[in-house]
Amino acid sequence: MARPSSRRPGVNRRAQYGLFASYVITIACAIAGLLLVLVSVADPAGFSVLRAGAATLTSPVASALKSMVRSFGTIDEQIIAYIDAGSQNAALRRQVEANRVKLIEAEAVAQENSRLKKLLQLTQETDNKVATARMISSSSTISRRLARINTGSVAGVLAGMPVRAPEGLVGRVLIVGPRSADILLLTDSQNIVPVRRARDNIGAISTGRDDGTVEIRPLSAGANPFRPGDIVVTTGTGGIYRPNIPVAIIVALRDGYAIGVPLANPARVELVMVERAYDANIPAPVVQSKTEAPASEAAVQ
Amino acid sequence: MSQPVPRLGSTPSPWRMDGTPIVTVLLASALPTMLPLIAQAPTLPPLGLLMFVGWRLLHHELWPLWIAAPLGAFDDLMSGNPLGTAIFLWCAINLAIELVDTRLYWRDYWHDWLIALTASAFFLFGGLGFVHHFGSGAPVSLILPQILWSALLYPLIVRVVARTDRWRMMA
After folding, report:
1. Which long-range contacts (CB under 8 A, 24 or more apart) does B124-127 make?
2. Residue B95: partners with Cβ closer than 8 Å, 6 or more residues away
3. B27 part of a folded domain
4. With a cut of 50, which residues of chain A have pLDDT below it?
5. Is A78 left (phi over 0), alpha (psi -120 to 50) or beta?
6. How far apart are CA B109 and CA A76, in angstroms?
7. Is the separation of the CB atoms in A300 and A225 below 8 Å?
8. Entry pTM
9. Where in chain A are the domains?
């Protein structure tokens, strides 16, 4: 390609001034960009209105494409299900019988649980769910792990609400638009969740590693208490997340910490639920003793 | 696809001449957020930047220098980077290409490719740096595949830009 011409204006004064002005404007824009980044650092959720507005442009397309991918993606599963329908039917029938008994037991336990909670005057709402949504897209070009769901402030979603799938925790809401919301995934290194091992109460902190795994760092110093296969769940400490939501399964051990894989793989989950932030559930009289509330709640369960 | 044929005595509308490059860059910026892909790590190359660099290297007088700022702002809003990241980095890249243009008398295909590779590496490292400033701890090794994809994808982007440019020129 030949040498630029108008960017070498020669003796034309007017063109020289124009060129100089364009350099000045570009450098000023670059500096303004740098200042904007600094403002964004000070207020991470700032400019969320702009970003939510941009999301309304793309999320309908992403929604439509996602539903197409889903129907294509499950074709093989549907064919296989049709082929072994007979044997599957018998197996499922046996399973239903077994589940029915367990269901009745669970109902009884739930009733007892709610009665005990009433005794403690912890009238936590049973229905934490704000909205059900599908994951439609994600930030696939940058080093932050954000995902977008197809519901927003119209359905009552607010920033900071936890998002979970039936399998486990997915993340929390970061930016809310009218019909879409951005989630900070569990695997983002800025998402820190207090967890405990499911079978005993060894406390730990889960931090994302930005590559699809999480770092589980035990609170107690000394030998690493975790073993591969251990499951960690939320503690409910610090609010936001309800206790006992499954978080991750530990797959590898490192020096002083463990590597876990989230139980709810965002790429696989069909539906996610946006829930109310945990502390917001506790009614007014109990709010005064806010620090004790989660502890007594944990004792009931 | 039928070959576009220029009509004698007619010129393309200014909307088509000026709008096409901008629209393609905006679309390339928006494409990753429209794909139904839930990424667990940065996977796609910075498509918006590659398209921008592709147009810039094909036509050096297509845009004023400051066009990097509004296009970068749109890219920030789409990608999820902190607002300002791409405004700053794209402006810096545009100025750098301008300087390279004053040094290089002729630009070969490989020059273009190397410029695009350097630009995307600078953009990705810069973006990672800003996110680190935010308090994220993403390792540097995470963006190395992205740089590789950018290098491999750029020849395709050049062809897309050239095709679009031919359509743009035909009235």
Report:
1. B124/B42, B124/B46, B124/B150, B126/B85, B126/B88, B126/B89, B126/B92, B127/A142, B127/A143, B127/B81, B127/B85, B127/B86, B127/B89
2. A23, A26, A27, A30, B65
3. yes
4. 1, 284-301
5. alpha
6. 45
7. no
8. 0.79
9. 75-119, 129-300
Q: Name the H helices within B104-142.
A: 109-134
3-state secondary structure of A284: helix
Are residues A212 and B74, on separate chains, in Cβ contact within 8 Å? no
B2: pLDDT confidence band, cut at 50, 70 and 90? low
Task: Tell whether A36 lies on the interface with B, counting CB pairs under 8 A.
Answer: yes
* B63 in Cβ contact with A26 (< 8 Å): no
For residue B132, how many other CB atoms are within 10 A of its CB? 14
Alpha-helical segments (H) within A43-120? 48-73, 75-83, 85-119
Residue A187 is encoded by which pair of tokens?
Answer: 């695997």
| A224-263 confidence digits (pLDDT tens) | 888 888 889 998 887 788 888 889 999 988 888 899 999 8
Nearest CA among A187, A124, A157, A164 for reference residue A245: A164
Would you mind telling me the total number of residues written for chain B in this entry? Answer: 171
From residue A127, how far is each of A95, A201, A271, A275, B155 by CA, in Å? 27, 26, 17, 9, 53
Instruction: Give a yes or no: residue B120 inside a domain.
Output: yes
- Nearest chain A residue to B31, by CA: A58
- What is the value of ipTM here, to two decimals? 0.84
A-to-B residue pairs, Cβ atoms closer than 8 angstroms: 204
Secondary structure of residue A72 in the 3-state scheme: helix
Helix (H, G, I), strand (E, B) or coil at B112: helix
B7 lies in some domain? no
B71 interface with A at CB cutoff 8 Å: no
Mean pLDDT over the full length of chain B: 88
- The total of structural domains in chain B comes to 1
Residue A141 to residue B45, Cβ atoms within 8 A: yes
Does A132 reach chain B within 8 Å, measured CB to CB?
Answer: no
Name chain A contacts of B46, Cβ cutoff 8 Å. Answer: 141
Spell out the alpha helix ranges (H) of chain A.
13-42, 48-73, 75-83, 85-119, 284-287, 293-300
B2 belongs to a structural domain: no
Beta carbons of B34 and A62 less than 8 Å apart: yes
Residue type at A284? A
Q: Which of B41, B91, B138 sits opposite A26 (nearest CB)?
A: B91
Q: Which residue of A has its CA nearest to B39?
A: A140
Please give, rounded to a whole number of angstroms, the shortest distance from the CA of B55 to a CA of chain A.
Answer: 13
Structural domain range at position B159: 14-33+42-169
Q: How many angstroms separate the CA atoms of A206 and B93, rounded?
A: 38
- Written out in words, the top-level CATH class of the domain with range A129-300 is mainly beta
